[in-house]
Design a protein that fits this description.
binds adenosine-5'-triphosphate, 317 residues, alpha/beta, rod-shaped, single chain, four-stranded mixed sheet, 59% helix, 8 strands, CBS-domain
């Protein structure tokens, strides 16, 4: 009988101690996310985990109570020294280390089985647990939501990239990282530099050789400038040249204002929103001195997001 009572007390001690570490180490926000994804174990644990302070007080009161009873009980059946030595050994090994190591790894899987026991204990301990948790929340504060910033999210994705257990394939990881990082980038970092840009003067006459040159360049949009190169006034769409029947100057066929204006330090997410809102997919980029320094298109931004160079049918390898 003595052994049975000791073992029952030890099991209870193990349970309280293991659950304290296991359940409280499960982040509330993470549990909420798992519940949204249909995780039933998370939903069961959340029933007791949602009020962290009450749960903490309940499990600690339960643990301390059981450990005290166990020591006193052993003290009543053996000499003081042995009672202290044996209860310390049993409590540390079987009541603390083993259950904590177990629940630290398997709280989500096995925790739900013990939720009903925790709820019963909670009910008994509530008159003590409530005032203590009330004081706790007012002194050390309420539990805060876990929110990761962009850099931390990127690190989490990178860790997944290195883990064999990850379900994400490398393309998904690349795109997620690109999406997290692109908004920090500026137009000046991804634009096509001025010297590589193909522009055309509004006064240029679209002779056969000019048309051939435009065709050879291969771009769909050719920004049109007036006077000096930096004064861009619109875009010549190469598809508009298909219906051309006479030799006319660019000024007669270009589309005014079909190009946006941006600066080198505009962020790519702002620019992407502008492209979508204005339904125009090219912008010319101005430096802080208001000089034309390059061109940027929707494709340049998409390439940053998917972290891959997109080449189309007309691009030379
Ligand atoms: P689309 O794919 O819509 O037919 P495109 O292939 O001519 O157009 P984009 O796909 O928008 O051009 O852009 C591809 C790359 O070419 C981007 O890096 C962009 O900056 C660059 N680019 C586009 N037009 C010009 C141009 N007129 N001069 C120089 N670079 C350009």
């Amino acid at each position: 009988m003595t052994y049975i009572i000791s073992i029952i007390l030890l099991i209870l001690s193990a349970l309280f101690s293991g659950l304290t570490l296991g359940l409280l180490s499960l982040d509330k926000t993470e549990l909420e996310r798992k519940i949204k994804l249909g995780d039933k174990n998370a939903a069961k644990i959340y029933e007791v985990r949602k009020n962290g302070s009450i749960l903490l007080v309940t499990l600690l009161v339960g643990n301390v109570l059981v450990n005290a009873v166990l020591s006193v009980f052993l003290g009543s059946i053996m000499s003081g020294f042995w009672a202290v030595a044996i209860s310390t050994f049993l409590i540390v090994l079987f009541g603390e280390i083993l259950p904590q190591a177990f629940f630290a790894r398997h709280a989500l899987k096995y925790g739900p089985k013990f939720v009903p026991i925790v709820q019963v204990v909670m009910w008994f301990v509530y008159p003590i647990a409530y005032p203590i948790s009330w004081v706790l929340e007012r002194t050390v504060g309420k539990e805060t939501e876990t929110v990761w910033d962009r850099e931390e999210l990127a690190e989490i994705i990178k860790d997944h990239e290195e883990s064999d257990l990850s379900e994400l394939d490398s393309d998904e990881q690349k795109i997620i990282l690109g999406a997290l990082e692109y908004s920090d980038k500026k137009a000046g970092e991804v634009m096509t530099y001025r010297d590589d840009c193909f522009l055309i003067s509004s006064e240029t006459v679209l002779t056969e050789s000019v048309l051939k040159h435009i065709k050879d360049e291969g771009y769909t949009r050719v920004p049109v400038f007036e006077d000096r190169k930096r004064n861009i006034i619109g875009v010549l769409y190469t598809k508009d040249l298909i219906t051309l029947r006479q030799t006319v100057p660019v000024s007669e066929v270009y589309r005014p204002n079909a190009i946006l204006k941006t600066t080198t330090d505009e962020t790519l997410d702002d620019l992407l929103n502008t492209f979508i809102r204005e339904k125009i997919h090219m912008a010319y980029v101005l430096s802080s001195q208001n000089e034309f320094v390059g061109l940027i298109t929707l494709e340049d931004i998409v390439e940053e997001i998917i972290k891959t160079e997109i080449e189309d049918e007309t691009d030379e390898a």
